[in-house]
Amino acid sequence: MGEIEELRTENDRLKAEIKKTKDVSNQYLQNVAHQLTAPLGAIKWSIEALKDERVPLLRKKTLLSSIYSQATILVHLIKNFALMSNLEADHELGQFREKPEPINVVSLSINLANDFQPQAYDAGIKVVVEKNSYDKVFGPNGLEIEKNLVAQAISNIIENAVKYADRGTTIKIAAFSDDEGVGIAVESFGLPIPDDDKQGVFERGFRGNAAKQKVAAGTGFGLYLASRIMKFHGGTIKVDTSGKTSKFVLIFPKSRLVSTK
Questions:
Q1: Do residues 106 and 63 both lie within one domain?
Q2: Same domain, 63 and 103
Q3: Considering the domain boundaries, does residue 94 fall inside one?
């Protein structure tokens, strides 16, 4: 009877685990559908307005900017979902990476900041890349990294900053250096991050109560993916806060510094 009871217990455990996995998968798919619907709907509405001959030219320019902004969000979401799907299937990031190459970090930062300028403009926020800081930290050097993965990690942080920053504030993107290594810092002023949430923000699916109240839609995957990408590069990601100021820092080992000339 003892063996039968053990088998029943194990069977119940496996059933509960399967149910939990199904629930997580269903929630994930619902999040995907919900997150994709908003930008697609906004793009469709803007295109319909552009077709209306009664809409003035100045308004059409604004609509084009909005389409670009929503398309950026859409591409960003799809890349995140693609990465997440690979991780959910127990694939390591290293299995589908491109070969690391020397990357000009300031150019990468500027290009990513520009991607989010229309979205930031709509929210009444500025995004500024502090070029002088890159000269001081990197000089003629860059980082040997997998560009697409790191670009996604930085984008996830900028996207969050735009989402949760206060209207009329400035998001600052700057080079960073300390004894641990070198990298990129994204600083914003807006929704405070409670001390209890600081470690949780890097966990899969985590969203703080304040974040949910300000922006209902969200998956909680962005910072988790950023942390996985940094770990793959032998680096780390940390967050420093002071009141409503939050600074997320991507730190790479100095061994990844290479000349880009």
A1: no
A2: no
A3: no
CATH number, domain with residue 83: 1.10.287.130
- Check whether residue 205 and residue 249 sit in a common domain: yes
- Give the structural domain span for 137: 99-259
Per-position pLDDT tens, the chain of length 261: 567 777 777 777 777 766 665 665 566 566 666 567 667 777 887 888 888 888 888 878 877 877 877 787 777 777 767 776 666 655 566 555 668 899 999 999 998 898 888 888 888 999 999 999 999 999 999 999 988 889 888 988 998 898 889 999 999 999 999 988 999 999 999 887 877 777 777 777 666 666 655 555 556 678 888 888 898 899 999 988 888 999 999 999 999 999 877
Q: Judge if 82 and 158 occupy the same domain.
A: no
Last residue of a domain, one of 60, 88, 116: 88
Sequential DSSP letters for the chain: -HHHHHHHHHHHHHHHHHHHHHHHHHHHHHHHHHHHHHHHHHHHHHHHHHT-TTS-HHHHHHHHHHHHHHHHHHHHHHHHHHHHHHHHTT--GGGSPPPPEEE-HHHHHHHHHHHTHHHHHHTT-EEEE-HHHHHHHHTTEEEEE-HHHHHHHHHHHHHHHHHHBPTT-EEEEEEEE-SS-EEEEEEEEBS---GGGTTGGGSTT---HHHHHH-----S-HHHHHHHHHHHTT-EEEEEEETTEEEEEEEE-GGGEEE--
Residues 40 and 108 in one domain: no
